[in-house]
Write a structure and sequence with these properties.
Number of helices: 3
Strand content: 35-45%
Largest sheet: 7 strands, mixed
Mean pLDDT: 91
CATH topology: Nucleoside Triphosphate Pyrophosphohydrolase
CATH superfamily: Nucleoside Triphosphate Pyrophosphohydrolase
CATH class: Alpha Beta
Order of helices and strands: HEEEEHEEEH
Shape: globular
Number of domains: 1
Distance between the termini: 46 Å
CATH architecture: Alpha-Beta Complex
């Protein structure tokens, strides 16, 4: 890792959490308001804070970005998100812990790092420019805990 890489990332990967939230056959997508990937569609989530458990971070981030109450159904996967700039230098390195969740209350309202949000039927995911890992995580969640789990 170069000196520039250490300076930009703080020398360590950051821990992030994400939730594929189901309401019936629909999952919730958010449009990111801030870098990295500002403007991109993704799943709700964010950074784990020092002294915070992974579950507490997940529930806090979901509440901040969506105003929803959820129940966590289970772990989907752990993903390394390593982003580089145009010169190939490391910009961001996140270890993302993604969970399936089910909506139990509240009205979805974009807040925090979310500029917009939408409930989307699994069949309509193709209409959103999702990163390949994000699409894979949503589809895996659907098989484990969402509409495809019923089949």
């Amino acid at each position: 890792m170069s000196e520039g890489d250490r300076r930009e990332t703080g020398g360590l990967p950051k821990i992030g959490v994400g939730a594929v939230i189901w309401r019936g056959d629909e999952c919730l997508l958010i449009r990111r308001a801030k870098p990295p990937l500002a403007g991109a569609w993704s799943i709700p989530g964010g950074h784990q804070e020092l002294g915070e458990t992974v579950m507490a971070a997940l529930l806090r981030e979901v509440r901040e970005e969506t105003a929803l109450d959820v129940t966590v159904l289970g772990l989907i996967d752990v993903v390394d998100a390593i982003l580089r700039d145009e010169e190939g230098r490391l910009s961001f390195h996140y270890t993302l812990i993604d969970f399936s969740a089910r909506w139990i209350g509240g009205t979805a309202t974009a807040g925090g790092d979310a500029a917009d949000l939408r409930w989307v039927d699994l069949a309509n995911l193709h209409g959103f420019d999702l990163l390949p890992d994000t699409r894979r995580i949503i589809e895996q969640s659907a098989r484990q805990h969402g509409p495809l789990a019923k089949a």
